[in-house]
Amino acid sequence: MDKAAVIGVGITKIEANKIKETFADMVWEAVNKALSDAKMTIDDIDNVITTSNDFWDGRTISCMAVGDASGARHKNVSCVEGDGTFGAFYGLARVLSGSYGTTLVTAHSKGSESVSSLITNAAFDPIYDRALGMDMVSACALQARAYMHRTGTTPEQMAMVSVKNHGNAKYNPLSQLPMDITVQDVLESEMISDPLHKLDCSPVSDGCCAVIIANGKRTSRYGGVPVWIKGVAFCADSYFIGDREISKAVALTKAAKNAFSMAQITDPLSEIDVAEVYDAFTYQELMWIEAMGLSEGGKAGINLEKGHYDIKGRLPVNPSGGLLSGHPVIAGGLIRIAEIVKQLRGEAGGYQVAGARTGVAHGVNGLCGQSHCVWVLTAS
Amino acid sequence: MTDIFSDVEPMVFKSRINVPYAWWTGETAERFFLALRDDKKIMGTRCPVCEKVFVPPRKVCPLCFHEKMAWVEVSSEGVLESFTIVKRQLAALTRKAPVIFGLIKLDGADTSILHYIENPGHEDIKIGTRVAAKFNEERSGSMQDIACFRPIS
Ligand SMILES: [Zn+2]
Questions:
Q1: Nearest to residue B63, comparing CAs of B16, B110, B7?
Q2: Surrounding residues of ion ligand 1, Cβ less than 5 A
Q3: Is the N-terminal amide bond of A195 cis, ω within 30° of 0?
């Protein structure tokens, strides 16, 4: 891949209910944080990609409604409906085309303003499945049980993901749910959709993330610290859940393989220093790590018990606290990229992974992880 | 700076989007629903290339991108691939919690369908449990012509 880098990132505080900010206010804040991080002005931005979802925003053509706050007026602005990692993929392709030197990518959502169960129910096929009344939580609960059945992962191991990530969040001032909890707390929390307890699920959140991507000479023109994009891939599985091998994430395995190969990484387990993955539910962190080849098959739960995924472990996973500690849908994956950028610049403060040089960020779109986008980044 | 929201209720604008849709089922789903309604039969389509049987039926094989699919009847019994017991009254539920959703692979099919699982005998259900479709007496041509799947004891 030609040279390209992330040269600026901005994340708003992730909150349960941002009563003081509209969508556009959140975008404005994240964009200005990213510009200031990159030591750029809006005039240095050649083009803009906004990422949003019309159902979550409660308006059609939602992406265009945040154009002004992204400084996109009188610029080439395009949109992605899906996770922010997919928006960033498009933004990267645009700078790699040579037509643009810099892309500003934004992703936002406010879960607090609607009803997530009804919105995710609408992701089901209207002719065959939707009337059953399933949503993201009940669908992922099916997947969790299938994953536990295949791998022998226990409810206690899943609970330990929640304990670890909420604990990591104590060091992340932007996180929504820093908490000292125990495995017992997770197992005793409300059973929402068996086998998923309340504390196995990420919360409803508001938040926005902005990332600036540059090519060629533009990567070091402004004085910010570039973090290099070494490999990126995305891959989608079948639409119908019943068509997939539900206990495995075949699409993620393919995406990770392609991203690692592009980055010339042959042994991801020894070459990746830190991972931020899409932990919308506890079992997903384990399932995604395994699918990416960052754990031996079926052993992620056991490795977690051994402390391998702690901030000081063999492969720190979600040192920021992950989505379990704050999950603005759409922005979720872009925040994973921004967190890896902070780690590789040594700017992650209390949750800094010592000596992190190479990191992987991961985003998901669709029910039960239908599609996955994987980013491999390295420090300057 | 003083917090202007500290003493006041935040101002919110309440609204909803309410747009009726009428989805044309397409000829493939139509044939599937008519077989459910008129004959209590569950139909799938088989790809002549990979020989996989898809339920619900597909007009085009999603694996081979091949169009000449053949209609086949599959069994109304199958195996539970996974399930969940929803205990919270999630907003999307259309019936009172607890509700059991299952992923069922019918005998003769290579894919699974989502549906309700009912367990009136309180049997020990698990992945691999055999289940059978219970059809509604009154059927109108929809997935709800199957009331639920129940464990076969
Ligand atoms: Zn085929």
A1: B110
A2: B 47, 49-50, 61, 63-64
A3: yes
pLDDT tens for residues A206-233? 999 999 999 989 999 999 999 999 999 9
The secondary structure element, H or E, covering residue B150 is: strand B146-151
- What global pTM score does this model have? 0.97
State whether residue B95 sits within 8 Å of chain A by CB.
yes
- Backbone angle region of A71, left / alpha / beta, with phi > 0 → left and psi within -120 to 50 → alpha: left
pLDDT, tens digit (0-9, with 9 covering 90-100), for B48-86:
999 999 999 999 999 999 899 999 999 999 999 999 999
Residues near A102 by beta carbon (within 8 Å), at least 6 away in sequence: A7, A40, A44, A45, A46, A47, A95, A212, A213, A214, A215, A218
Name chain A contacts of B102, Cβ cutoff 8 Å.
Answer: 142
User: Looking at the predicted structure, is the pLDDT value of residue B8 above 80?
Assistant: no
pLDDT at A364 over 90: yes
Contact B82 A143 (CB under 8 A): yes
Q: In terms of DSSP H, where are the helices of chain B?
A: 26-39
Q: Are residues A140 and A209 in the same domain?
A: no
- Give the pLDDT band (50/70/90) at residue B5: low
Confidence at A98, pLDDT banded by 50, 70, 90: very high
Say if residue A256's pLDDT is above 70.
Answer: yes
For residue range A184-203, list pLDDT tens digits in order: 999 999 999 999 999 999 99
ipTM computed for the complex = 0.95
Q: What are phi and psi of B30, to 5 degrees?
A: -60, -45
In chain A, residues with a C-beta closer than 8 Å to the C-beta of B144 are 131
- For residue A208, the CA-to-ligand 1 centroid distance in Å is 41
Instruction: Give residue A97's identity as a one-letter amino acid code.
Output: S
Domain extent at residue A23 = 4-114+205-227
CATH code for the domain in which residue A38 is found: 3.40.47.10
Residues of A whose CB is below 8 A from B54: 243
Cβ neighbours around B137 below 10 Å, total: 5
In this structure, what token pair is assigned to residue B41? Answer: 């039969």
Q: Can the peptide bond before residue B56 be classed as cis, meaning omega within 30 degrees of 0?
A: yes
Cβ contact, residue pair A142, B127, below 8 Å: no
A47, A5 Cβ separation under 8 angstroms: no
Residue at which a domain ends, from A194, A227, A260 = A227
Question: Which of these ranges, A51-65, A95-109, A254-268, B6-20, has the smallest mean pLDDT?
Answer: B6-20
For residue A73, the 8-state DSSP code is: T
How far apart (Å, rounded) are the C-alpha atoms in residues A76 and A103? Answer: 10
User: What is the C-alpha separation between A122 and A135, in angstroms, rounded?
Assistant: 8
Alpha-carbon distance A84 to A72, whole Å? 17
Q: Return the bridge partners of B13, or none.
A: none
In this structure, are A156 and A86 located in the same domain?
Answer: no
Same domain, A72 and A175: no
Polymer length of chain A: 380
The tokens for A64 are 């265009």
- 3-class DSSP state for residue A357? coil
